Backbone:
């Protein structure tokens, strides 16, 4: 059973470009969460999605950031017009559709560097 | 109310010693308390978790102690090994609402 997949693992963007981060949840999981982690800091919740629905985006900046989880394909976190402050590790987690919804399993992360 | 406090920020333990990391929360709605282990360059991995209906849970060398009245919980790592050197995050959740502590960087000296 493959774990949570994220790609790319490393992404370098110049200021003003767009960053697209992808996350494929574990098999049997339909809940996806995105977190941001700055160096030497904890995980900050950004958004929680189910298939085709954004459930909670209270942690997402109002501008430049968007997320989707289409019926087919991975979840996408999109950052438009990136700035240096967006440099961070972005982690995706998924939890089961049924059974224990509390358990979140994390992917390896995408490390975004904005130059 | 949504904050989870974690201490210490960093911890150095000799091989074979006991590592103890503490967390505290305010929101009594939280009903699930997991601990995650993160190695450099990797994603957090679920280590052990507890629900408030029990006061202690043990899995191998890892034990969670939970004090519902004090709204505190802690992770104990017995016989700490250099391979345990990592950052540990506590978390608290209700439903799909997760809040993470800031993390503790553990170094176990050989």
Residues:
């Amino acid at each position: 059973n493959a774990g949570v997949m994220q790609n790319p693992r490393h992404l370098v963007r110049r200021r003003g470009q767009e960053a697209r981060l992808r996350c494929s949840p574990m098999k049997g999981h339909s809940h996806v969460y995105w977190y941001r982690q700055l160096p030497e800091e904890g995980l900050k919740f950004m958004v929680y999605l189910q298939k085709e629905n954004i459930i909670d985006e209270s942690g997402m900046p109002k501008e430049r950031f968007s997320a989707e989880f289409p019926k087919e394909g991975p979840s996408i976190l999109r950052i438009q017009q990136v700035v240096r402050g967006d440099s961070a590790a972005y982690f995706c987690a998924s939890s089961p559709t049924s059974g224990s919804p509390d358990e979140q399993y994390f992917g390896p992360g995408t490390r975004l560097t904005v130059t | 109310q949504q904050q989870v406090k974690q201490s210490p920020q960093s911890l150095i333990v000799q091989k074979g010693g006991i590592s103890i990391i503490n967390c505290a929360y305010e929101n009594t709605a939280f009903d699930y308390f997991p601990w995650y282990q993160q190695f450099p360059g990797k994603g957090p991995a679920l280590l052990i978790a507890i629900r408030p209906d029990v006061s202690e849970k043990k899995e191998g060398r890892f034990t969670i102690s939970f004090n519902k009245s004090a709204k505190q919980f802690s992770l104990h790592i017995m016989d700490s090994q250099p391979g345990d050197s990592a950052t540990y995050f506590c978390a608290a959740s209700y439903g799909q609402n997760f809040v993470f502590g800031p993390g503790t960087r553990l170094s176990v000296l050989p």
Observations:
- The radius of gyration of chain A is 13 Å.
- Chain A touches chain B at residues 4, 6, 31, 33, 35, 41-45, 48, 55-56, 91, 95, 101-109 (CB under 8 Å).
- The mean pLDDT of chain A is 91.
- The longest strand of chain A covers residues 29-37.
